[in-house]
Amino acid sequence: MKVIAWICVATLCFARVGFSQGTWTFITPQGKEAFSARFEDAGDFKEGLAPVKKDGKWGFITKNGDWKLEPKYDLAHSHSEGMAAVMLNDKWGFVSIECKEIVAPKYDVVHSFKEGRAVVALGTHFGFIDKTGNEVVKPNFSFADDFSEGVAVVQNGAAYGYIDKTGKTVVGFMYERAYPFSEGLGAVRKKGLWGFVDATGKEVLPCQYQRLDAVFHEGVALVLFEGKYSYINNKGKDVHVLLKADGAGPFKEGMAPFQLKNKFGYIDREHFREPIAKYEAVRAFKEGRGAVQIAGQWGYVDKTGKEIVPPAYDQAEDYSEGLAAVQLKGLWGYLDGGGTVAVTPVYAAAGPFSEGLARVAPIN
Q1: Which terminus of the chain is more exposed, N or C, with fewer CB under 10 A?
Q2: Would the pLDDT of 127 be above 80?
Q3: CA distances (Å), 78 to each of 47, 49, 61, 124, 338, in order?
């Protein structure tokens, strides 16, 4: 049996900064173009701005299609916590929500800001900066992950531990692997076995599990202990034992994907009904809907298992702001929450709705 972070077969997963499909623009939920401008590539709107590519360079636009920052960078990501990563000459820096360059491009690797800090790397040495560009944790680690619940995973040599936002060690470097905190606990591995620690470094759940889902979701985590897979709570107590399953994943909106032989289905968190696996593939639930595949075609089910949208589409993405991108006969459009076509499939590619607009690639 295997732990499944998410399950998806032959689906299109949208990149943060778009993907090349000719020209791009943005539409409203009614399918109307938000403005007439066209771009070579585009990312999602975040915090009122979207990164777009024009004449080979990236800048940022407002929801009116006006330039907030004229194209000047080789690559740009959407804003997060008021800061956006930008690249110039293979080096990364950051601009503010006002599109002022706060951190000149000088880093080899950067992550988006999380909890007021961003991972940065000079060569193979990782650290953290704040929103002024100050290196609050010098790039001295061989690996660093984003901050989550006030602490971050870092690697010192071969060992992993956790630090706080000042760089102080809060969980010692004694683990073979570690993952970000979720719901007050972080997954760690020692001598080949997994457990969970709290922010004080205490092993709340001792390293005794052969395998586990990396984080707690909705109060439970999937673990393998003494040959038995089960969902446990943060006290280590079995909440639900999986008697028949070849794979399972984390809960999202009360539903978790699972696998039985070569078929997939969902486990209901509230009722833990005996799951039925009948689909070729499934996606995690989003906005009360799960995408499912039968005979190569995709549709959507609700939490009772009712088919809201019978499988009839070549591809189907997660719902976002009440709409889901679907592909039919090679063209993309959108469905509303009831499964009715909201935007006719006429686009070469389509991204999720974000802040009321979606990026699409019209057929030239």
Answers
A1: C
A2: yes
A3: 8, 7, 11, 25, 30
* H/E run at residue 312: strand 307-313
Spatial strand order of the sheet with 91-96 comes to: 75-76, 83-88, 91-96, 101-107
Distance from C-alpha of 212 to C-alpha of 225, rounded to nearest angstrom? 9
pLDDT at 7 over 90: no
Nearest to 2 by CA among 215, 260, 254: 260
Using alpha carbons, select from 175, 203, 170, 202 the residue that is nearest to residue 189: 175
- How is 4-36 classified by DSSP, letter by letter? -S---SS-----TT---SS-BEEE-TTS-BS-S
CA 1 to chain centre: 24
- How much of the chain, in percent, has pLDDT values that exceed 90? 83
Residues 224-235: pLDDT tens digits? 888 788 899 999
Model pLDDT, residue 240 = 83
Structure tokens at 77: 């990501």
Kindly state the tokens that stand for 341.
């076509």
Q: Is 25 exposed, middle or buried (0-12, 13-18, 19+ CB in 10 A)?
A: buried
Which two tokens mark 361? Answer: 């690639």
